[in-house]
Inverse folding.
């Protein structure tokens, strides 16, 4: 797999990845049949997938450009969102504008800039990271929809994607008002091409957040490194990243150890994430 070169501060060039993955996504869908079903999102067809990433990238471009820092401004952002074009050509044009603006605004914004974000990290740097991974996963969706060959996945980006999927998209950090009850023993997740491991414990999270929303979800408690575990899931970064997003893998993911422990991991991974 190809390798990306870390920046001087050790971070990955997420904005470059955002541009590259978005360009591949666009190129594949531009040639896809409009009526093709998205295998990984069965309720969508080609243009639904194209519109989804268009509106996601438009939304975050607006957050960055307007320097929005508080959720009270989100209603105005949503109200300003352009209508979905009916024609493919117009939809592609809107995607081009939204994608270019997002990457350019992130390039022009200091990474430490505080911005609104649903995750705990409210920096422009995290928005760049999140959007690079969003584009990567939907690029895979586009290739599956069009029946196109899977382009190589940068292994450093994918390894970071495994970390983000485990810690943020499927992870849980203990906080007041919530309880986390283990549903199974610890399991090791290991990269064979990144020489990194995580130890995850599946938990059922219940509680009520600050907005009054009630939670009853399955998540992981995550620790870096190996620990005493009942089972292990092992594979290359690109496959583990795809697996954690419930996307098809190219190679083989090896699963060893207690089957019940692995089943509880599958129960967490089986929950859909947008």
């Amino acid at each position: 797999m190809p390798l990306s070169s870390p920046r001087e501060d050790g971070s990955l060039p997420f904005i470059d990845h955002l541009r590259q993955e978005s360009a591949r996504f666009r190129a594949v869908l531009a040639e896809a049949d409009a009526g093709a079903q998205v295998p990984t999102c069965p309720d969508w067809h080609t243009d639904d997938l194209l519109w989804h990433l268009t509106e996601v990238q438009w939304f975050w471009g607006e957050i960055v450009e307007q320097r929005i820092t508080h959720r009270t401004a989100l209603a105005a952002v949503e109200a300003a969102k352009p209508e979905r074009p009916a024609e493919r050509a117009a939809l592609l044009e809107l995607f081009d504008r939204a994608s270019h603006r997002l990457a350019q605004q992130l390039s022009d914004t200091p990474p430490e800039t505080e911005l609104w974000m649903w995750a705990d990290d409210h920096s422009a740097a995290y928005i760049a990271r999140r959007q690079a991974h969003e584009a990567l996963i939907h690029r895979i969706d586009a290739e599956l929809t069009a029946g196109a060959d899977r382009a190589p996945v940068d292994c450093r980006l994918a390894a970071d994607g495994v970390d983000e999927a485990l810690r943020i998209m499927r992870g849980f950090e203990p906080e007041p008002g919530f309880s986390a009850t283990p549903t199974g023993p610890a399991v090791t997740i290991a990269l064979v091409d990144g020489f990194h491991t995580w130890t995850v414990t599946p938990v059922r999270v219940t509680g009520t957040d600050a907005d009054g929303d009630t939670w009853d979800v399955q998540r992981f408690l995550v620790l870096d490194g190996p620990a005493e575990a009942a089972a292990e899931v092992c594979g290359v970064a690109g496959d583990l990243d795809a697996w954690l997003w419930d996307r098809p893998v190219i190679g083989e993911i090896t699963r060893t150890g207690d089957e019940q422990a692995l089943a509880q991991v599958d129960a967490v991974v089986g929950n859909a994430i947008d």
